[in-house]
Amino acid sequence: MPPTEVPCPRHPETVTALRCSRCEAPICPRCSIQTPVGARCRECARVVRSPVYTLGASHIARAFGAAIVGGAVMGLVWAFVLLPFTFGFLAIFIGAGLGWAFTRLVDLATGRKRGPITIAAASLGIVLAWGVLLLFIEPRVALYGLVAVGIGIYLAYANLR
Ligand SMILES: [Zn+2]
Ligand SMILES: [Zn+2]
Question: Which of 8, 15, 44, 130 is the most exposed place for a label (fewest CB within 10 A)?
């Protein structure tokens, strides 16, 4: 027997047959959140996400600490070893390297946490690496590096969200 259609508690103008897979509360497509265990209401989706998406103060400190140290080191490597790769399509490799390196770094620092804070830490590290590069080369030349920065941040976002 299909579930009966009732108004969504959050959006009374919408009728829905969808139920939260945990608490059975009616949810409409607008307020349902897809989780590995089915569609859930907002509160219950938070329960599913909590272990990986909840960061304590020590995780946050370690994520940003690792990103700052990593950014400084990567910036030096970029300026002195990888500079020739900054230009043209080779920037893709620098970008991929930055995205991978900072995803791994934040993974190690937080024990594989995910979410906006880890993305912010990785992005900060990548921007910082470019900032260090800026200390050693002409700003006009360093601008080319922003392509790699963009690719790196996009990849970190894709891996850590
Ligand atoms: Zn629920
Ligand atoms: Zn709704």
Answer: 15
Q: Residue 140 in contact with residue 86, Cβ under 8 Å?
A: no
Other Cβ atoms within 10 Å of 112 Cβ, number: 11
**Shared-domain flag, residues 24 and 46:** yes
- Give distance in angstroms: CA of 42 to centre of ligand 1: 7
In a domain, 139, yes or no: yes
- Whole-number Å distance, alpha carbon 13 to ligand 1 midpoint, is 20
41 alpha carbon – ligand 2 mean position (Å)? 9
- Residue 150 — very low, low, confident or very high, per pLDDT cuts 50/70/90? very high
User: Is residue 1 domain-resident?
Assistant: no
Give the number of domains in the chain: 2
Coil, strand, or helix at residue 40?
A: strand
One-letter amino acid for residue 2 of the chain: P
- pTM here is 0.70
Which residues touch 96 (CB under 8 Å, ≥6 apart)?
A: 151, 152, 155
Average pLDDT rounded to a whole number, residues 133-144: 91
Q: Which domain holds residue 38?
A: 6-50
For residue 23, how far is its CA from the centre of ligand 2 (angstroms)?
A: 15
